[in-house]
Amino acid sequence: MDDLYREQIIDHYKSPRKRGTLDPHDYSYEDDNPLCGDRIRIDVRVDGQDRITEAAFSGTGCAISQASADLLMESVVGRSLDEVKALSKDDILEMLGIELGPVRLKCALLSLKVLKAGVYGIESLEQELA
Amino acid sequence: MAEAKLRQALDVVAIRSEFPVLDREAHPGVPLIYLDSAATSQKPRPVIEAMSRFYEQTNANIHRGVHRLAEEATAAFEDARAEVARFIGAPSSRTIVFTRNTTEAINLVARSWGGANLKQGDVVVLTEMEHHSNLVPWQMLAAERGLRLEFIPVTPEGRLDLAGLPQLLGLRPRLVALAHMSNMLGTINPVAEIAEQAHQAGALVLIDAAQSVPHMAVDVGRLEADFLAFSAHKMCGPTGIGVLYAREDLLEAMPPFLGGGDMIKRVELRSFVANEIPYKFEAGTPAIAEAIGLREAIRFLDRVGLDSVHTHEQHLATHAIDRLEEVPGVKVYGPPAEERGGVVAFTLEGIHPHDIAQLLDSEGVAVRAGHHCAMPVHQKFGIPASTRASFYLYNTLGEVDRLVEGLYRVKSRFA
Prior knowledge:
A: Sufe protein. Chain: A; three-stranded antiparallel β-sheet; B: Aspartate Aminotransferase, domain 2; 15 helices
């Protein structure tokens, strides 16, 4: 079957490392992709230097959106908020190790969109990622 | 294609040979299994050829030209209109307005009839299983005019709950607008019965027939439809053309929809006189080749016989529901097969519809995943999305089996 569903993606979908919510948190944001009903919430804690100490996601969606959220949460721990701001579409695709058509790309990028919107309030992220 | 042969119990092999796209592979070495006809149907060769022939031999703009090509094009276009009228039992070609699609047809009614007749506090009754195209135009008008929208509920079995209909009709609605067949649940609604009651209460009735006209014999007189809308592309015809049927007296009284060429009798700098019906509602150059394609699609469906098509699809739906319900974790939405058309939407526990559809695609099985432009009915069943298989005259029981086998492999991939 399809290469999109590599072992790593199924594994992160079925056994997410970073699923949950953080209470208290420094940043929290939630958004959805109304086209497919995927919904993701991301909670983040930072230290005094604005470096991410903990990150977690919750929500529902397809394997691509959930696995990419889990991989993203793993990868941002230890990074500064400025580094998060610099993350791009290509970073997500590299993390997933797959190529995606325009429809599924939205699934893969939902978590990055939510994370950036939560941390920086970037509303026009779709333009930035286009 | 021998006519007699097609009429008997649907010779699917012969029918399939008429659809060139069904010969292609979805991916190299993987045959295509097209189970997405509720989104758009495939096109048979006679339709494709009729449109090519028009462009190769006739192409001209219609109505005002006096040259030979224009006359031929106009005659073919108007003949297509007459063919549509006959196909749905409309009393005259004057009651057939060509639009872009079902959505535009419903918007035409909302803007033109609704704009002229509905005022603050007026009630429009819809149902919870409507496609967005029969919700949003009324929501837009309701927001402008202060209309009150009421909804016939959907039961857990996926039927319209008509117990409360007398109460809704007691609100004296001006219009009852509903789908003949749900594009998610597959339910065929008792529209004639609802129309009769609605008329007794003084309401007009609009039927969204996008999912019914392609698959079963529809007669506007028998359904008591005041308005009825459908699209060519779901019935073996081309995209870009749809139909609004409306009662002649209603069309006569309705103001124009879009303004421009063809919808006028005469124009002065500050005023115009509208054309007669149905041209009053057809501004600008219409989809001419598409009308000719639609005419050919109707002839094709007539040769096959819509009653056979409907019976065939109910066989497929029955088989699909039986086999899908054997798969652990699958939940099928909607009523029993005998109350529906060839649409079967389902969920598979723990696996998102998008993942299901993508994995099935890798096996050549084309299904749809998402909300199918019917978000409210998904909300009603507490799901954000579903996977939908939809059938047409060219599908086989073997293809349904391939869908089910594919689902087992999807499950094992996620196991």
